[in-house]
TrEMBL record:
PROSITE patterns: ZF_BED. This is BED-type domain-containing protein. The lineage of its organism: Eukaryota, Viridiplantae, Streptophyta, Embryophyta, Tracheophyta. Residues 1-38 are annotated as: Disordered. InterPro entries: hAT-like_transposase_RNase-H, HATC_C_dom, RNaseH-like_sf, Znf_BED, ZnF_BED_domain_contain, Znf_C2H2_sf. Residues 39-95 form the BED-type domain. It comes from the Eukaryota.
Length: 691
């Protein structure tokens, strides 16, 4: 006789059900038509819901991820258990939290910006930790293989036993995935950006002599903070012609959809880049989206200009520099000579510092070598008496020349440092600095030292080549600095130009370009206002039509006419533009205040000058240098290290771009730029300095 689940016969079960139904005033439907209500015995059904199908069969729906799986019949439950343990992420996360100790851990977060501390309960999240590790690899240039290092894995296991550290290939995939996510975020930011962007390009070379182009955009965000983002880091096949470079850059601009938001592009000074700009203008000018018909589109890199000027002058001082360089090399060539020189330095009370040897491709190192060597002038003179092998001792005349040259180079050194900053706008600063270099060169032309006259002559010729090209944009940026305005331009022009009418001619050239630029922004703003007024007018007409026949309609029309009459009267009476009112106001004090925040000033005064502030926002986003200060002094190219050279092109771009984006986001959130954002190679250098 067939038995039921509890050992009863089927007849006994049926009899019991019949007796129950007889006593029930609402008997259940016919079992042949009702869906089976069989009770499941497997514990796996605690995490699944039964989903009945029209044909009488049923499926299983996961309560955690809502996935539908087949069930019933002979299918069993093994595949349901496999789904929970292998595929269902919400279930696995819930199980990890369930396994956590009942005593919650506390996480303490420090905020450096306002020195506050946040305490909250800690919950381990495998996926979040996995993403955080990918961020660390991308931001700090950790090698993928670090995940395979035995003692690193032991270290991580001791910190958090639940964290599963993936292998190198998975880490690489995580970094690429992170890059795609951050790229989408940046695309949305640029798409919603209510201002123009400026571009810089930089050519890099791998250790296997493969060329790469780094395209970077610069802008001021809605909070009036200066921002910089690397857009692309792509290989460029040889030859690097202007046509080929133009094709690469414009393709990337179209990909990011910013081709209609451009203000300028900052490039090094070379014939290829001049041709590149002509190629780009032939594509962009027909769209009529560039300010002043593209006349301000091409900006020469200020740091590169200064670099060329300095190199021109240093070529005329090879003899003086050579004697100092050979002297430093001689002392540093052996430990015995170093110890002997240290003893001599102590005798003459020279500074207890090390001698500095320059790198010929970085002129700032040459300047620092000369300044450093001057401190040991007496020590070198005594060493020449004590050491017969010392043959390159500079003469007294050489030391006098070194002293004069160092003073000259200091002007270029300080200016380059100032205009190569990345945390603050630099375009408004360069005009005054540039003019002071110009006046210094003019002064050196009448020096009593013939070699200084020779140096200044070569420098001045190189300077004048770029001054006429760059002076207008730099002067406009200086005018829009509330500390300078027109007074600064007038002052320096009167110092620089001596011929009759030269001052007025150059000043009018700057004013004319500024007025054209402002009027273009005024037209764009008026078009926007007309669209807004048209929308308000149409809404008003709809409201009026809905109340047609109202006794108040005539009164409403009369008041509207009165408002228009008053507005037209005020407009006709007021002939001053925002630009005129800005220039007539007193200059803001603090010309020598290096801490003056020009972006904060314009953010506060934006409502007062809505059109002019939009122009300033676009203009101050233009960097005056294509490189940061650490690269601004170099005459050599940018070289990729062996680690980055070994990566595939797409992975290399993903890592370089993601590193830049993560660092920028961290800075916006209050992180510092030292240890928190340092790369692995930079950390090694710091360790060496500490040792």
């Amino acid at each position: 006789m067939p038995l039921g689940l509890d050992g009863e016969s089927l007849e006994q079960i049926e009899q019991t059900q019949n007796n129950s139904n007889a006593n029930d005033p609402n008997p259940p439907p016919n079992p042949s038509k009702a869906k089976s209500s069989r009770k499941f015995r497997s514990k796996v059904w605690n995490d699944f819901e039964r989903v009945d199908l029209p044909d009488g069969s049923y499926n299983a729906k996961c309560k955690h991820c809502k996935m539908i799986l087949s069930a019933g019949g002979s299918k069993g439950t093994s595949h349901l258990k496999y789904h929970l343990n292998r595929s269902c992420l919400p279930y696995k996360k819930a199980m990890r939290q369930k396994d956590d100790v009942h005593q919650k851990l506390l996480k303490v977060s420090e905020f450096q910006g306002n020195n506050t501390v946040k305490v909250e309960c800690f919950e381990f999240d495998q996926e979040k930790s996995r993403k955080d590790y990918a961020k660390a690899v991308a931001a700090h240039e950790y090698p993928f293989c670090m995940a395979d290092h035995h003692f690193f894995r032991v270290f991580i296991k001791n910190l958090q036993p639940k964290f599963r550290l993936n292998k190198r290939n998975t880490i690489r995939s995580d970094c690429v995935k992170l890059y795609k996510e951050e790229k989408e975020n940046l695309y949305n930011v640029l798409d919603k950006l209510n201002c123009r962007v400026s571009l810089t390009t930089d050519m890099w070379t791998s250790s296997n002599v493969k060329g790469f182009l780094c395209l970077t955009c610069h802008y001021i965000d809605d909070h009036w903070r200066l921002q910089k983002r690397i857009l692309n880091f792509v290989p460029v096949e040889s030859p690097h012609t202007s046509e080929h470079l133009c094709s690469v850059i414009t393709d990337k601009l179209f990909d990011w959809n910013i081709d209609k938001k451009l203000f300028s592009i900052v490039l090094d000074n070379c014939t290829t880049n001049d041709a590149l700009v002509r190629e780009m203008l032939s594509i962009l000018k027909p769209k009529n989206t560039l300010p002043v018909s593209g006349n301000l589109f091409h900006v020469r890199c200020g740091a590169h200009i200064l670099n060329l000027i300095v190199q021109e002058g240093l070529d005329s001082l090879k003899g003086v520099i050579h004697s100092v360089r050979e002297t430093v090399k001689y002392v540093r060539s052996s430990q015995a000579r170093i110890e002997r020189f240290e003893k001599v330095s102590q005798q003459v009370r020279a500074p207890q510092t090390k001698l500095f040897l320059d790198v010929p491709t970085r002129w700032n190192s040459t300047y620092l070598m000369l300044v450093n060597a001057l401190k040991f002038r007496e020590a070198f003179s005594r060493l020449a008496v004590l050491d017969r092998d010392y043959k390159h001792a500079p003469s007294d005349e050489d030391w006098s020349n070194v002293d004069v040259v160092s003073e000259c180079l200091q002007i270029f050194y300080d200016t380059t440092i100032k205009i190569s900053g990345t945390k603050y706008p630099t375009l408004n600063l360069f005009f005054n600095e540039y003019c002071e270099v110009y006046l210094s060169l003019q002064n050196w032309l009448s020096s009593d030292h013939s070699f200084i006259v020779n140096m200044a002559t070569r420098m001045f010729e190189k300077f004048q080549k770029y001054w006429h090209i760059s002076s207008v944009l730099l002067a406009i940026a200086s005018i829009l600095d509330p500390r300078c305005k027109l007074k600064s331009v007038e002052f320096y022009f009167r110092q620089m130009y001596n011929q009759p009418g030269e001052v007025e001619t150059n000043l009018n050239r700057v004013k004319s370009c500024l007025n054209i630029l402002f009027n273009e922004y005024l037209v764009l703003d008026s078009k926007f206002q007309k669209r807004s007024n048209g929308l308000r007018s149409s809404n008003k007409q709809c409201a009026d039509s809905s109340s047609a026949g109202s006794s108040k309609k005539l009164c409403t029309n009369m008041r509207r006419g009165l408002a228009m009459f008053i507005e037209e009267s005020m407009t006709s009476e007021s002939t001053k533009s925002e630009l005129d009112m800005y220039l007539e106001e007193r200059n803001v004090p603090g010309l020598d205040d290096d801490g003056f925040d020009i972006l904060a000033w314009w953010k506060c005064n934006g409502p007062k000058y809505p059109v002019l502030s939009q122009l300033v926002r676009d203009l101050l986003g233009v960097p005056v240098s294509t490189v940061a200060s650490e690269s601004a002094f170099s005459t050599g190219g940018r070289i990729l290290n062996d680690y980055r050279t070994s990566l595939k092109d797409d992975v290399l771009e993903a890592l370089i771009c993601t590193q830049d984006w993560l660092r920028a986001l961290a800075i916006d959130e209050g992180a510092t730029e030292d240890g928190a954002l340092m790369s692995l190679s930079e950390s090694v250098c710091v360790d060496e300095e500490i040792d």
